[in-house]
Amino acid sequence: MSTSSTSGAAKPASTRAKPANKYEAAADWADGRLGIYSLAKANLRKIFPDHWSFMLGEICLYTFIIIILTGVYLTLFFTPSMAETVYHGSYAPLQGIRMSEAYASTLDISFEVRGGLLIRQIHHWAALVFVAAMLVHMMRVFFTGAFRKPREVNWVFGFLLLFLGMFDGFMGYSLPDDLLSGTGIRFMEGAVLAVPLVGTYIQMFLFGGEFPGTDIVPRFFTIHVLLLPGIMLGLLVAHLILVFYHKHTQWAGPGKTEKNVVGMPLMPVYMAKAGGFFFLVFGIIAAVSAIATINPIWAYGPYRPDQVSTDAQPDWYMGFSEGLIRVMPGWEIGLWGHTLNLGVFIPLMIFPLVLVSIAVYPFIESWVTGDKREHHILDRPRNAPVRTALGAAWISLYLVLLVGGGNDLFATHLHLSINSITYFVRVGFFVVPVIVFIVTKRWCLGLQRRDKEKVLHGRETGIIKRLPHGEFVEVHAQLPQGELHKITSHEQPQPIELPAEVDENGVKRKAGVLAKTRSKLSKGFYGEGSQIPKPTAEEHHEITSGHGHH
User: Fold this and answer.
1) In degrees rounded to 5, what are phi and psi of residue 16?
2) Kind and range of the H or E run holding 334
């Protein structure tokens, strides 16, 4: 008697070859449970374009990794406590001096822990390079228009990384509780107290009582090593995921379109280059750290509220915030028995506006231009004169305020009047960005004219030819097709026009304030005087056919 199964046909035997060795067997086991092979197959062959400017983002990533690695090492030996102790370490000039345990442990890291001073130096230098690389990387993205759809959210992530990196750096160099960092914390305390109504409460919460309190170093330590790095790590991962998802931007060139990417695969070419570049960055930072001393806390001594460090300066990325307060007149307003310190409060309000102006720019440009398309081809900065001029004006404002933040050093080292420097910064705050904007815009337009001339007449060869009638002319050579494509492939949008004042039925149309503002800004971006028309094919044919061309 025969029987049959009702559960369906048996599964066919696998035709896959048996693993060649135990490592392949382990890989098969992991792939069967985690899907690693399909994930790797989809992403490890992803194409990345190759250009030196793209390495700026890699420097940000590598310095962040260096900061994490060195920070973990330093955390093992640092004591985040403001409890007083008497120093009995190996640094003789501070023997028997009362200081906080935070300062004493930092001295121990510098003089007692093997390699501790070098790790401290690498950590601090990497932090400086990290913030600098982020700022330069964001400027590269800004000037090339890489922030446009669909990358606006990724731009905001980058801005948040820059913003949090600045404050994490400030908290990091405040932890040793030396005289220099304590002066910086006192500066911050004064800014907090200038906030109306809630300033005193915030100050008491941060410091755990009257300044200097007992809690500021432990709280900064928790924020510096746990809270902000955790948020930044999450933002960094999200940033990289979006880079993979949206694909990388690329420069214009033959064969490059909005729908493809021309470059090298992630594995093995790009990963090999990236790995080598990581060790190059690490090596240079380590070499600089071994040669150039930074933040020698033993030279400043422990913090005391009744003392101020000479030439106290913050790290460069926070210098513009101090410049705002240093050059602001000491205005005050008395209301209902309370004093509002405008000399500190107004700069405290301007400080975030200077930074937030970067974060919101992509949305402003998208609204002004009405451009809702996806963009994967980068702009040459000269082809977006207004955007380039705005970026240059922002940088000039930052540099002017940086001069204000170090007005005492400029005065002593250049033998100038500190009052003259302060007045220069006050005037320059309003004047210098305007001048830089105008000069940069005209510079971009001049470069556009030169490109047009090269397209129509070719490049100069340096060869002089004498014509039959005696005239001497320079021979021009036509540009290669690849160069012509790079120069002429950019778009030239037209400004948004207001609708007609009267519709087809003779009824008057009212344009709102926003519509009028948008139209005026759009004309400022793309109207007459903001871009040079590209040469047409007819113009190129007429000139190259021999009519007046040598």
Assistant:
1) -75, 140
2) strand 332-335
